[in-house]
Amino acid sequence: MKNNNNNNNFGVKQSIIVLFLLINLSLAQAHDGAKIAVVDLERVVILSPQGKALQSKLEKFQEDVRNEAEGMNKIAQDIRRKVQEGANSLSEDKLAELQRQFEDQSIKIRRFTDEKQREGQKMQQQGLKDIEKELEPVMKQIQTQHGFDLILNNTPGIVVMTSEKVDITQLVIETLKQNN
């Protein structure tokens, strides 16, 4: 057990050393004239025309799914109401048939919900891939025009601190708009 713990500590120590060296290397390059920028890609996606169009498409899809699910739920509620109202007056066979219909409708609703959830996720993933494809040449254009050596996604935990003068998020959004 002790050897395993020592191996884990050794791996952590190596990782810290490598990280320290990379940071120092980056700082050294920055002092040698390397030009670094950060971009908030999440904000770019949200504020870009493509991101807004994707958001509208997803909202419409969700509304359509919600409306269809409400219709299916109404059918299930009607069947349940018939079961409750006929509990004392309907034959066992008719009551059992209504119970089967209710169970079938409930299963249909669960399948529908699962299928539409997968469909929505797939739609979102494809939309984000499409935006990424449109974003790649824009980022390359900005990198070339402004001479950036490194552009980082301003992600918490990766980029610890940044100043506004290296944040090119608005420039990326504006360039994306111009290219459409």
Structure description:
This protein is mainly α and 180 residues long. The protein folds into 2 domains: 1-31; 35-178, Protein Binding, DinI Protein, Chain A. It is built from 5 helices and 2 strands; from the N terminus they run H-E-H-H-H-E-H. A two-stranded parallel sheet has the order 1-2. The longest helix is centred in the middle third of the chain and has 55 residues, at 92-146. It is elongated. Residues 1-8 have low confidence and may be disordered.
In short:
The chain is mainly alpha-helical.
Topology overview:
Elements: H1 2-31, E1 36-39, H2 41-47, H3 49-85, H4 92-146, E2 150-153, H5 169-178
Parallel strand pairs: 1-2
Can you tag this structure with a few keywords?
2 domains, 2 strands, Protein Binding, DinI Protein, Chain A, disordered N terminus, 180 residues, mainly alpha
Distance between the termini: 60 Å
- Broad shape: elongated
Name of the CATH class of the largest domain:
Alpha Beta
> Taking strands numbered 1, 2, ... along the chain, how are they ordered across the largest sheet?
1-2
- Oligomer class: single chain
Number of DSSP strand runs: 2
Estimated share of beta-strand residues: under 5%
Low-confidence stretches: 1-8
- Number of helical segments? 5
Structural class: mainly alpha
CATH superfamily of the largest domain: Skp domain
**Series of secondary-structure elements, N-terminal to C-terminal:** HEHHHEH
Q: Architecture of the largest domain in CATH?
A: 2-Layer Sandwich
Fraction of residues in helices?
over 70%
The overall pLDDT, averaged over residues, is: 84
CATH topology value of the largest domain: Protein Binding, DinI Protein, Chain A
Biggest pleated sheet: 2 strands, parallel
What gyration radius follows from the Cα positions, in whole Å? 28 Å
**Tally of distinct domains:** 2
